[in-house]
Amino acid sequence: MIRLSNVDKVYRTSQIETVALSSINMEVKEGEFISIMGPSGSGKTTLLNILGLLDVPTRGTVRLNGGELTSYRDRDVARIRNREIGFVFQTYHLISDLSVVDNVEIPLLYRRLRGGERRKLAREALERVGLSSRIHHFPSQLSGGQQQRVAIARAIVGKPRILLADEPTGNLDSQMGDEIMDIITSLNREEKTTVIMVTHDPRLAAITERIMRLFDGRQVN
Amino acid sequence: MLKNYLKMAFKVLLRRKFFTFISLFGVSLTLVVLMVLVALFDHTFGAYPPETKTDRTLGVLFVEFRSPDDHSMINGFAGYGFLDRYVRTLPNVEKVSLYSFPTTAVSYLNGAPVTSWLKRADGEFWQILDFRFLEGRPFTPQDEKDRNFVAVINETTRKRFFSDGPAVGKFLEVDGQHFRVVGVVPDIPILRIVPFADIWVPISTAKTDTYRGQKLWGNYLAMILARQRSDFPMIKDEYHDVLKRVEFPDPQHYNKAFGEAETLLDVASRAFLLERGYGESPVRRFMAWLILLMVLFMLLPTINLVNINVSRIRERSSEIGVRKAFGASSLTLVGQFVVENVLLTLVGGGIGFVLSYGVLHFISSTGLIPYAHFGVNYRIFLGGLAITLFFGLLSGVYPAWKMSRLHPAVALRGRG
Q: What predicted TM-score, i.e. pTM, was given to this entire model?
């Protein structure tokens, strides 16, 4: 489904060059649940960003369903992100000015769906994460766990085939973290969503089918 | 989608109230100045009654006579004799009217002198212009021919002399001559120099008939009504030909005539561009200059708004990252931010529009420009709307484009 071949990512400034990823080869099969582990600064988030087409590699290729992505135009990449991929971020990244339901609708805005249809799908996604009673609240009125559930609803509202989660429980206490993990796990098991999750927590990584370990930008397993 | 953009734009407006205030202040102040200028322009050159046929009306407003060696020159209004002989006789026109530039005339009311603007005109003057009569009628070509001492007065003159009561049939003394009032019309603003006066009387009632002589220059102007606008080039050419055949009473002093059959806007354009030559209409160049000056005037507030917008959008880099992550292309984001900025400028434009209305009303009420009634009509509204939209686009596109280029991973880190 996703294949990374010899991927390097180097950040350059006028004075220094930082190698974030080096020679990464990775293949993700449809329906897999993979975790990426490693210490801070090991390149986990950079790798997740490249997998999610939020960043481009300095060298190497990214293939999604056989198509090479480095040569795609902005509009095409945007379309793939919209249709194929859902993101869950550690810090939720909800838009504070928008209500819960408006936040969840964001991916659907770029699909030219009618307002009524968008609202219906957003309500269904919020129901899926157990937040249907909070649709008109604003992010600041919710707890961290609730905000992350809204972020998950936003990630799954467009029914993407791939869910990328960057330390989804990193800012939550263990009970809320478990609730979030239950939702993510059930998405993988029941809806066959491919999940790639960055985590520090070995307990969470143990739930996944496969663990990829990074150290100083290199694969170590 | 648009509804969503507008909702977001509204939220952003409320988010940083000081930024919003500065932006709106800049937009509305700029718009007030430009709207007042547009209103002034429209008031002077727009097609308002009684000048409703401006689309097919030309004028001979100025003529120029030069000596054989071009060292001596007279430039100004033409004499009645010149216009009567060379302009009134132009072929292929529907109608020609001759009239004087208004001069001050004194009347005595209860022993006190009262000054009015007096215009002498022929009967055709009333046929070309669409005056609305509050009472009575205009004077006719026959009145002019028969040298009837009749007058049309404006509303203010009626109020002054007849206390707002009916004036038709009553007599009025102007510069020592007595006229019978035959009609009353609404006040005409002084900026409408063709129809403007307080009192209109037939040319033939002039104190002497010297005006009929061969004098080339004087105090008269001509108004030419074409059958259709497409006749303008032909009429202009015919007038040029006529000017080549002018018989000069004293050719040793002046033997060349120059001029144009043109609109008031042509004359104003030439004056603005400091052009002395005749020929091609300068209106397009004049309008281009006006637009350029307007753009330059808007430049400073635009740069200010661009800076504010860049700061505003930079604060939203996380939002940009999220939107990109969930499928927004750079172009979509440009669209969103431009819509937001246009909404902001439209709000500013709305405030500016209300303020402009107040300022124009104030200028009208001061009487600074006699009989001026600056209003806001659909032309001024559309002009203001066009300026606002232009302003919104000008100040919105660059910041939107700049921020839409942000890479989503960078934007999500909040490093706009």
A: 0.70
